[in-house]
Every structure is written in C-alpha cells, then in structure tokens.
C-alpha cells in the first residue's frame, strides 16, 4: 500500500499525540537471574546454560540478590516507591527461544512503582511519570538461516541460542505522556537518553543499544483535541536514540493518514525499519489475560528491608541532571552554552580534558570547535573522532607553554586525529614548533623591512599600527611558525619605534 503521508506540521496542528515508553535493560550482574550461569556478551551458542535456565524438569530457580539490589537502586533513582513485599509471576506463552514456555516476570506486584524522571527538551523541563520498574528474565535468541534477510520468511532452518535466556532484565514503563504536541518525538528521545545516562551513572548496565542491553518499545497514539486518547500501537525494539525519535514521528504520520482516510488504528505491535524509517505491522497485541499470569510458586516473595532500601538510597551517586548542573556552574556556562555542549555530546569529553589539566574554556574550545567540525564532516560521534581528552589537554599545554600558536595547534590536531601520534611527537616530527628565538627571527625581520621600505618608513615616523603588515610578511616566510608577539617587538625595536 502506498499512501502519501501528510506533512508533520499539519498532523500536529490537527492531532494530539500521546506517547509511552517501555524500556528493557539487561543488568550487568555476573550471573543470571535465577541460576549461576555467566552473563557476558558473546560466547559460543548454548555454552552458558544449565538445567535452571534451560527449564529442565526438577530444577529450581533462586533469585539473584545483586539483580534485586540493582532494580531497587534504579527505582530509587527514578523517584519510585519500593514495595515492601512483592512476588514474581509466571507469564505463560510459547516461544522457541524461551525454554520453560513461561517467563518469570512481575505482574501486579512490581518491585518499584509510581516515580518520575525529569528530562530537558529545548531548555524546558518535562516530567515523565514512571508507572513501574520490575524485574524479569530475558529470553534466548532465535537465528533464522538460509533466507536473504535473516527473517523467518524464506529461511530454511532456525537455530536457538539460550545463552541470553535468564539474564536479568529490568523493565521500566512510563505513564502515558500527553501534551507534548509537536515535540513528542524529541521528548521520547530525551527520555531514553536521560534514562540511559541515569542507568550508566548507577553502574547497573552497560546500556549499549547496539548490543541490545538497552531496548526500547515506543507506544504512540493520536487523538483529536479534547477527544479521548486514540488506540495505541507499540513499535518494538527500537535500537538507537535516533530511531526512537524517528519511530514516534513516522508512527504519528502513518496514524494520521489512516485516520484522515476514515480508517481505524489497530492495536498491534509494529516493527521499525532502520533503513526506511517506517514501521510495519507485527502481531496483534495480546492482552494481559492471554498470558494467564499467576504467582511463581518456586520462588519466595521479595521483601526488601526498609533499612536496606534507605541505605541504598543514601548511597546513590550524583545523578546526571544534578551532575550537569554542577558542571555548568563550575565551568561558568550560560544555559545556552551548556545546551550546545550537551547537543554536541561533549560533556564527558570536556570533563575528562579538564581532569587532564586544562581550563574549562580551552577544553570547550577544542571539543566544540575544531573537533566537532571534524566529527560532523566525517559523520562520527564526537567521542570517536580520533582524539582523546588526554591528547587535547596535552595540545593545549603546548599552546600555553608558547610552543604552539593557534594555527600550528590546529595543524598538530589534524595529525592527532589522523593517528600520527601524540601532540608533542607530531610537533617535533613535523618541526611545527613556534620559533621565538630572537636570533633566528632577526634575519627574517630584516628581510621584511628591506622588502617593504614604505611601510618601514611609516613605522619609523610613529605609525606603529603599520607593523601588522610586516608581522604578516615574517609569518609568511617562516610558514606561520614565528611567535607573532616576538616578531612585532623585533620589528619595532629594529625601526626604533619601540
Ligand atoms: Zn543457567
């Protein structure tokens, strides 16, 4: 079906979007949720398994305390109430990559409920309600082979790998988020970004979207102003921050075109396609009753001691929002300047550069100037541009010591990015050091005076501003390596004008 999608501006002028996000986070515990199998990424298929995570008869699960602790800490960081008593539940469904034919999850008794996360979009704070944070186990992975696309259609056989089955998974569900209008896609992205940063600061997960340790499902619906909320769709497993934003936007456009044509939105899951930026239907959405949830009889209830929870709360690290606010103050930046640092993804890089011995102003100058430009040109993230904070600090140290001027420093930085070595090595190897030795510069100065007698006369008669032209001439003959200040002083003293 090919339909022409309406323009985004038109859609948000006529419809109000409501979004919601469900995020799955693989915890970075050493062992799985209910057994002692290791959890690290990779490994030969089906080598990190045991009777418990394979669901063999007679095996019994035991809950991983580190996973419960991590989940409580996530709940606390998201301002949730922590249950004083809760149970795991069996969620029954058949799936080849789920060896027990049920998943141990939490249903009506989640570990953490009713919190919020503040995110910033365009300088405004948006409070995102958190409905629940619960703990469950991950499934294995199915691999379809023989087909062209890696999907089940056209495949000749399917393989299952249970290494991931049983890895602790935390699900974080937002409350519905109405009222964001045209900003809905950006709010969704800002939320996942902030959540990722919070999880990283807690050290509970490596939060790598590309490896699937952070996965996001995006709910989207549209309604007419003042009307009831529309039917929502759930776009599954969106794998990058950029895709979160694109998935919301594309689903808003698609739903608007269906509604405009007098159609109805089906409640269903949809798949997001990275290449085209659109979604296609998956299965029609199950309701909770399809899963026949019941309390997991093989596990004791979880009853976190309030004193332990209070201890965990007191020991939470400084969370990203507060951390950023403190840095902004320390660096003396306006809101706008801080925003450009954030947009460039440069906070941690600047922080590390300062830690390596540079002033905030110098660190910011390099990362937001030369290196951001370079990252944009080559289409990479700033962190992958090829220079490290330590190298940038070293470069600035050479500038501060008068060994490099700005122009030479930029040339050296190009060498650093190209992998030629450290700033000092490149400066030495390429002979880029500033020449401030008076003896070496006098000849060049005399040459410039001789070649420009008119200008020299002006300077002799007191027009010292004319010295700039001679400085320029000396810089040219020394290929930019002369120290401009020294050159100027030499010119003035040779012409008796100082
Ligand atoms: Zn196991």
From TrEMBL:
Enzyme nomenclature, EC number: 6.3.5.-
One Gene Ontology term of the molecular function aspect: transferase activity
Asn/Gln amidotransferase domain span: 348-495
Record has Magnesium as a keyword: no
Signal peptide interval: none
InterPro entries cross-referenced by the UniProt entry: Asn/Gln-tRNA_amidoTrfase_suB/E, Asn/Gln-tRNA_Trfase_suB/E_cat, Asn/Gln_amidotransferase, Asn/Gln_tRNA_amidoTrase-B-like, GatB, GatB_Yqey_C_2, Gln-tRNA_amidoTrfase_suB_CS, Gln_synth/guanido_kin_cat_dom
NCBIfam families found in the cross-reference section: gatB (TIGR00133), PRK05477.1-2 (NF004012), PRK05477.1-3 (NF004013), PRK05477.1-4 (NF004014)
Family the entry assigns: Belongs to the GatB/GatE family. GatB subfamily.
Subunit-level organization: Heterotrimer of A, B and C subunits.
Protein name per the record: Aspartyl/glutamyl-tRNA(Asn/Gln) amidotransferase subunit B
């Amino acid at each position: 079906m090919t339909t022409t999608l309406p323009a985004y501006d038109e859609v948000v002028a006529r419809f109000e979007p409501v979004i919601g996000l469900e995020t799955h986070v693989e915890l970075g515990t050493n062992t799985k949720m209910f057994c002692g199998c290791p959890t690290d990424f990779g490994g030969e298929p089906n080598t990190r398994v045991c009777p418990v995570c394979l669901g063999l008869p007679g095996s019994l699960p035991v809950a991983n305390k580190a996973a419960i602790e991590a989940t409580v800490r996530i709940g606390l960081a998201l301002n949730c109430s922590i249950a004083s008593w809760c149970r795991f539940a069996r969620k029954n469904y058949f799936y080849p990559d789920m060896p027990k034919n049920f998943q141990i999850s939490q249903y009506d008794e989640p570990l953490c409920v009713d919190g919020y996360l503040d995110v910033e979009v365009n300088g405004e704070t948006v409070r995102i309600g958190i409905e629940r944070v619960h703990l469950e186990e991950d499934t294995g992975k199915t691999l379809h082979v023989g087909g062209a696309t890696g999907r089940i259609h056209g495949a000749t056989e399917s393989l299952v790998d249970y290494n991931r089955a049983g890895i602790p998974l935390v699900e974080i569900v937002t409350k519905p988020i109405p009222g964001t209008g045209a900003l809905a896609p950006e709010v969704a992205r800002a939320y996942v970004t902030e959540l990722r940063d919070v999880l990283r600061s807690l050290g509970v997960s490596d939060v790598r979207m590309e490896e699937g340790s952070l996965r996001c499902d995006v709910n989207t619906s549209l309604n007419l102003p003042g009307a009831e909320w529309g039917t929502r769709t759930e776009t599954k497993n969106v794998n990058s921050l950029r895709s979160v934003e694109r998935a919301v936007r594309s689903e808003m456009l698609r739903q608007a075109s269906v509604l405009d044509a007098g159609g109805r939105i089906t409640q269903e899951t949809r798949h997001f396609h990275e290449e085209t930026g659109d979604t296609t239907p998956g299965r029609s959405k199950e309701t909770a009753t399809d899963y026949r949830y019941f309390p997991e009889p093989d596990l004791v209830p979880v009853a976190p001691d309030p004193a332990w929870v209070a201890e965990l709360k007191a020991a939470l690290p400084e969370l990203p929002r507060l951390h950023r606010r403190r840095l902004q103050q320390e660096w003396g930046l306006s809101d706008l300047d801080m925003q450009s640092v954030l947009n460039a993804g440069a906070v941690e890089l600047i922080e590390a550069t300062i830690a390596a011995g540079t002033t905030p102003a110098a660190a910011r100058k390099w990362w937001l100037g030369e290196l951001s430009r370079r990252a944009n040109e080559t289409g990479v993230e700033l962190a992958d541009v090829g220079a490290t904070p330590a190298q940038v600090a070293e470069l600035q140290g050479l500038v501060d010591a008068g060994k490099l001027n700005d122009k030479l420093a930029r040339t050296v930085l190009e060498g650093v990015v190209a992998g030629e070595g450290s700033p000092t090595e490149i400066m030495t190897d390429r002979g880029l050091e500033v020449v401030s030795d008076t003896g070496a510069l006098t000849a060049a100065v005399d040459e410039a005076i001789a070649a420009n007698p008119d200008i020299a006369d002006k300077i002799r008669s007191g027009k010292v501003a004319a010295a700039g032209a001679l400085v320029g001439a000396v810089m040219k003959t020394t290929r930019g390596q002369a120290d401009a200040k020294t050159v100027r002083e030499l010119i003035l003293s040779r012409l008796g004008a100082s």
